[in-house]
Amino acid sequence: MKNTLYFLLIITFFSMTFMSCENGDENYETYNIATPVTMSLSELRSSVKILPPQKTAKSGKIYVYDNFIFINDQENGIHIIDNTIPTAPKKISFLKILGNTDIAVKDQMLFADSFTDLVVFDISDIRNIVEKKRLNNVFPQHIIYPTIDNNLPLLYDYPNYNADKIIVGWSIKKEKRKPQNIDYLSSSGGIMFNAASSESTTGQGGSLARFMIVEDYLYAVDNQKINIFNIQNLSVPTKVKEQNVGWGIETIFNKNDYLYIGSTNGMYIYDIKSLENPVFASRIAHINACDPVVVDEKYAYVTLRSGNFCGGTNNVLEIIDITNKVNPVKTASFVLENPYGLGIKDQMLFICDGSAGLKVFNKTDVFNLQLTNQFKNINPFDVIPLDDKLLLVGQNTLFQYKYKQNDIELISTFMLE
Q: Where in this chain does the entry annotate a coiled-coil region (predicted)?
């Protein structure tokens, strides 16, 4: 909580440093005024619903389990798609979970975040999903940031806000006010961002995932920590501990006995030979940027994206030699347009490069990546390379490709709207 307040105070300090007067009036400045949109905790925790197929407002992360694809509708829930026939996928239902951004599945039990809570569902009958358990307040560092489209400084306003409510969004308006210092701890309550064994089967997420299941443990990263849950009893998970990592944590990836954690200023490596007790191995810094990561036996592939809260101005792919886990070394760097998710399959490297589309590289020689294909007429968000096909989501559309020697070929396009 203190770290969150400190971070916001720093942002505001620097924003106010660069303010300029308008209309020659030296007594007033123009601000973005952010007023929280709130919901009572009781309303949040009774809002889960199983609905018929719905239109997609804003597609987010993608997850696959068995013959089903789960696509997040950002902060709203999960679209469930029957992909038994990849050339003709079909929406079958919508799992409404307010504040949802991530899921993970093991042995027909689905784990999903709902703002500060973790919710568990039995999906053994995919057409009759049952909520089994909700763990309250296990993600206390969940933060909803205001979204603004200009460079004006940001002030927060908190009328009628208290600890019985949770912030679920922001209403932004421009307003002229006298230059002022900001007291985040207002009398109305201030700012508060709180309130597998060999026979087991787990699903697979993309590179933007914050949830990762390894055997009997679920690792869920928030902005600062790894939250560790014991899921041996799948329907009644328990939170074991929190492992502090650093600020700006974004993504998590598992390879063998290690977790690779992407943040806005570097990649962290944690040893999980003891699954309940991740041990810091190393950190390699990079420019401030959003930072998903995927890993093969020797290298970590990191896309760095500028803009919004990512910081920085560079859009690049960095390749890091992870042979020595306690001393990773940056090996190569390649300029991109505006990268999001990425994935690897054998010698193919797939990068969702924003308006430049999906790029396919041959990574046999990491010092000299070869672009083998590019699908330009899409704006991809995240990708999952499976054994037999590639799944990609972007612009409220699900794309599926089949592997063809060292390349891929489109097999279906499915509009999520």
A: none
Determine the Cα–Cα distance for residues 387 and 392; give it in Å rounded to an integer.
Answer: 14
- Residue 131 covered by a domain: no
Q: Kindly report the backbone phi and psi dihedral angles of residue 44, in degrees, each rounded to the nearest multiple of 5, phi listed first.
A: -55, -45
Number of domains in the chain: 1
List pLDDT tens digits, range 308-352.
555 566 789 999 999 999 999 999 999 999 899 999 999 999 999
Q: Is 389 helix (H, G, I), strand (E, B) or coil?
A: strand
Quote the tokens at residue 15: 């924003």
Domain-embedded: residue 211: no
The per-residue DSSP string of 306-337 comes to -SGGG-SS--EEEEEE-SSTTS-EEEEEEE-S
DSSP element (H, E) containing 95: strand 90-96
* pTM: predicted TM-score of the whole model, two decimal places: 0.84
- The SS3 assignment for 4 reads helix
Question: Which domain covers residue 144, as residue numbers?
Answer: 2-38+140-177
Selection from 98, 139, 142, 103 nearest residue 123 by Cα: 103
Q: How large is the greatest C-alpha to C-alpha distance in the chain, in angstroms?
A: 72
